[in-house]
Amino acid sequence: MAEILRPHAEVEYAKELKLLEKVDKHPRPTNWNLSPWAVVTYLMGGKLKNGKEIEPKYFGNRRLMEIAVATLATDRALLLVGIPGTAKTWVSEHIAAAISGDSTLLVQGTAGMNEEAIRYGWNYAQLLAKGPSRKALVVSPIGRAMEDGKIARIEELTRIPSDVQDALITVLSEKLLPIPELNEEIQANRGFNVIATANDRDKGVNELSSALRRRFNTVVMPLPASLEEEVKIVQTRVEKLGKTLELPKVDSSVEQIKRLVTIFKELREGKTIDNRTRVKTPSATLSTAEAISVINSGHSLATHFGNGKLTANDLAAGITGAIVKDPVQDKNIWLEYLETVVKERKGWSDLYRACKEIV
């Protein structure tokens, strides 16, 4: 029997969600499976009164998550903004799973998207056979969320063309979706709301109109506050993904993860951790998500072509690939960083040699 590569959050964490539902004594908005308190507890993790542990899904500022969840209990939609890799999609999926028990009501924003993805389309066989009717109507995930009183998700809102974005205004302000062809409308049931994500570093960004922006409460998703926090995030996510991908347990060496995170953090911020040396910043975002990807690639190399222990040689290709997006400018920045920082850092000679061989 085939196994799902990536189960939806509500499936993978079904036991935790049921456990929270049983112990949750806080007030719940209509059609919410959990109270706002329980949703944030599910996200941030912690120990319940019955001694059971909830695994943290998000490592960061709890207050940000409280603001995000509280927004969804109002008539305002939620917009999560940040650079790639700040867990926007991860958080939106888990919030939808905790509130509605369904994270699949998703619209993926693209530059070529049309209004049908947000409003509705038609089953053309039914349309030609019987004309416009409810049976011929193909409602979008947003329309289905309105009918069911659930959370809809929109990924990469600013990738969507501006005229298509504005199709959301009526949905968010009037809480209805007009269907002029049938002289009908879909009215939102209680519990309906929208979580959108936006990447402020994307070259294909379409600015939101002021009318649409007013319909959202915006939460800016920050990068991890400290080196230790980022190391913990990478380590936790790598362990989870390793199980999903059925990679044998590798000695990931926290020290190797710490070296990678240090490199990414220094190149992002344009200075070394000790503030003694200024470094140039490459075009890549070097997010936590990319660090997780580099470690996972290293694990695969160590498992299949190494001795089962993560080494500098296993990391070198992934680090270089993550940093060097522009083959000229980024390559020169990376080479300069190797010579001025990595080469001079005590205990990093193996990483220096491995990276120099790849560049």
Task: Describe what you observe in this structure.
It is a single chain. Strands 4-7-10-3-11 form a five-stranded parallel beta sheet. By secondary structure, it is α/β, with parallel strands linked by helices. It has 16 helices and eleven strands. The mean pLDDT is about 90. It has helices at about 10, 15-25, 35-45, 60-70, 90-100, 125-130, 140-150, 160-165, 170-175, 210-215, 225-245, 255-270, 290-305, 310-325, 330-340, 350-359, and strands spanning about 45, 55, 75-80, 105-110, 120, 135-140, 150-155, 175-180, 185, 195-200, 215-220. A hairpin with a 4-residue loop joins strand 8 (about 175-180) and strand 9 (about 185). The radius of gyration is 23 Å and the shape is globular. It folds into two domains: about 10-220, 3-Layer(aba) Sandwich (Rossmann fold), CATH 3.40.50; about 225-359. About 45% of the residues lie in helices and about 10% in strands.
